[in-house]
Design brief:
Oligomer: single chain
Number of strands: 15
Shape: globular
Distance between the termini: 18 Å
CATH topology of the largest domain: Quinone Oxidoreductase, Chain A, domain 1
Number of domains: 2
CATH class of the largest domain: Alpha Beta
Length: 334
């Protein structure tokens, strides 16, 4: 190891309680303790990164800090015999980018238990086009697909809410690849063509989904649902799920509340599955990454993303917080 310094996006708290962020030069010795030192080739921007970058204490407790809950790159040093210099790896979730300096940097150091060997079917860039958002979509599709199939779904459709976001975009593409008829929900009328290119059979507005959600039950519409929003949208989706329908839940940007009764569960046998990508067991993590790299691999990955350098993250952080991100933003720290 001959490199001693590297570039990183650093978020600092001022005396007045304001937060600033800038690309700075840091020392390798500043990195936290860990078994594996990784040279980062690519990272990606997630909503949680934007919260950390603006000083949200629910995500990051102490500053200065480098966000970035994803990274893919090459092992430089390892004290764990399972990894050696030159290995291609990726890290998503756990504490990376939250209270452990993250992937918006040229180097990270992490515990070996967080490290996933990059599947042979993915480049580092492709792995980060997926990133935590894509992995969360993969877990959601995995949970739905275990309980439902395109054949079982029949003529009914699978609903994806928050469809232009990172999780939603990948979920639409994955479900379409597997043969499901997908209805994508968006509040952005101009995004309809984008969603159809990803494979959506139908695109509808939020109002079309939530109309009548004040009723105890709604007319059955969805064989399955991948919800990325929470709140009223999730409530309406559950109430309109078909007999033995499957609903996955992974977000709360709409609201953390779920105003609901038990009728969908006891009268229609609806299953609600919570998705936790951060603490997903390694065995399942490896299984889903292998599928994302293999039989589930999305051919249009490049269409899901655009690239920025560390210096270009500021505008993208503001955009994702305003709900304006489409698809995936991947970060080239070099």
């Amino acid at each position: 190891m001959t490199v001693n310094t590297f570039k990183a996006l650093v978020v600092r708290e001022s005396e007045g309680g304001n937060f600033t962020r800038a690309v700075e030069e840091r020392n390798i010795s500043d990195l936290p303790d860990g078994d594996v030192l990784i040279r980062v080739a690519w990272s990606s921007l997630n909503y949680k990164d934007a919260l950390s970058a603006t000083g949200n204490r629910g995500v990051t407790r102490t500053f200065p800090h480098t966000p970035g809950i994803d990274c893919a790159g090459e092992v430089v040093q390892s004290s764990d015999e399972h990894f050696k210099p030159g290995d291609h790896v990726l890290v998503t979730s756990y504490d990376l980018g939250m209270n452990t300096d993250g992937g918006f940097a040229e180097y990270v150091r992490v515990p070996s238990g967080w490290v996933v060997p990059r599947p042979a079917g993915l480049t580092a860039k492709e792995a980060m086009i997926y990133g935590t958002a894509g992995f969360t979509a993969g877990l959601s599709v995995y949970a739905l697909n275990e309980r439902l199939s395109p054949e079982a779904a029949g003529e009914m459709e699978v609903l994806v809410t928050g469809a232009t976001g990172g999780v939603g975009s990948v979920a639409v593409a994955l479900l379409a690849k597997l043969g499901y008829r997908v209805t994508a929900v968006t509040g952005k009328a101009e995004a309809a063509e984008y969603l159809r290119r990803l494979g959506a059979h139908n695109v509808c507005s939020r109002e079309e989904v939530t109309a009548g959600s004040d009723r105890p039950l709604m007319k059955t519409r969805w064989a399955g649902v991948i919800d990325c929003v929470g709140g009223e949208m999730l409530t309406a989706a559950i109430k309109a799920a078909a007999l033995m329908g499957v609903v996955t839940c992974c977000g709360n940007v709409g609201s953390p509340d779920l105003p609901l009764n038990v009728f969908p569960f006891i009268l229609r046998g609806v299953t609600l599955v919570g998705i936790d990508s951060q603490n997903c067991p390694m065995e399942q993590r490896l299984k889903v990454w292998e599928r994302l790299a293999g039989s589930w691999k999305v051919e249009c990955l490049e269409n899901l993303s655009h690239e920025v350098a560390l210096e270009g993250l500021d505008d993208q952080i503001d955009l994702i917080l305003k709900g304006g991100q489409r698809g995936r933003v991947i970060v080239n720290p070099g």
